Amino acid sequence: MTATERTLELLARNLQEVFGEGDTRRRRAAIEDFYTDDCVVVTPDGTYVGHDALNEFAGDLRATHPDYVYTPSGKPQVVQDAGIVAWGSGPRNEVPEYTGLDVLLVRDGKIATLYVFLNPTLS
């Protein structure tokens, strides 16, 4: 697998198997497979460092909306060691409740840094 293919895989699987996963064991296994030990995840709510912090954050986030799914929108893009994917989240087969953009930096085939941007909601 090329570096570009791995980054595309990480962009897709991270949405589903980390942030979309309700089972703690499966989510933790995905984190260990997808993220470096010293990973940094930066969100509007804070910065999380390492597998334990990421697992706790993703689990807490998942608990706030256990029936939501993450759906990529548009085509993921990769440039060298970085990738982006836009996404929406909401009930399956409905208009997303919120949308965002993930930007990740890959080191040695794993996510070293993930920036999560949330789009403002129009109400």
TrEMBL record:
It holds the Pfam family SnoaL_2. InterPro entries: NTF2-like_dom_sf (IPR032710), SnoaL-like (IPR037401). It comes from the Bacteria. Residues 20-112 form the SnoaL-like domain. This is Nuclear transport factor 2 family protein. It comes from Mycolicibacterium hodleri.
